[in-house]
Model the fold of this input.
Amino acid sequence: MDILFAFGLTLFAGLSTGIGSALAFFTKKTNTRFLAISLGFSAGVMIYVSMVDIFVKAQDSLVAELGLKAGSWATVASFFGGMLLVALIDKAIPSGENPHDMYKVEDIEEAKVQSEEKLMRAGMFTALAVGIHNFPEGIATFISALHEPSIAIPIAIAIAIHNIPEGIAISVPIYYATGDRKKAFIYSFLSGLAEPIGALVGYLILMPFINELTFGIVFGAIAGIMIYISLDELLPSAQEYGEHHLSIYGAIAGMAVMAASLLFFI
Done:
């Protein structure tokens, strides 16, 4: 039952790229204020839960296994190792095809003037890039849900929110390259499947080896991954929508909600 819950939560987070795709086709104008607040909120949730809860739990596990000094060093190493993993993924994605480039619904009109070949290439590369990014996020959500269900739900919601603009970024160019809304939606949908696939791979590969030591290392890496995503994707993306202060207010609100939810589980 716990495994089904964890997998279902990861599936929900990943497939929210489809929500972005639907927004691109059924709305006339981007609600930049809503997206800025939402992305900021996601960043606040991820930053707070990573530093206050996940990092601490990783350290507790590793200190219990390795002792205070070695355990503390291992925690910090796994934390920055998680950041390095996402940074390397970013580096591997071709320049100009990064999913961090935010699209608005209005960009559909501008997209019409570009060549079909260029549009299709942009959409396909973005779908691939989003899929690659979603893979470690899927592992993070799944492992969190198995071990700490109380923090997994807000993490999944935060990841789901940040996947919505990525769904727009995939759908817009593919639709105007092919004229096929169904195809654009399918590619957007498939890129989100990388998240539950990441969960499945994480389960099959990591679960046989999960003990206090590996749990601590994985949780430390998850904290690093989520901090990196927040600083490199969520907050910059929110500000790209031109609503700087709203993104900060959203981040503070996300931290407050996460703090309250953790207090309820004490």
Remarks:
- The chain has one domain: 2-264.
- The longest helix spans residues 32-66.
- The CA atoms of residues 36 and 243 lie 6 Å apart.
- DSSP finds eleven helices and no strands in the chain.
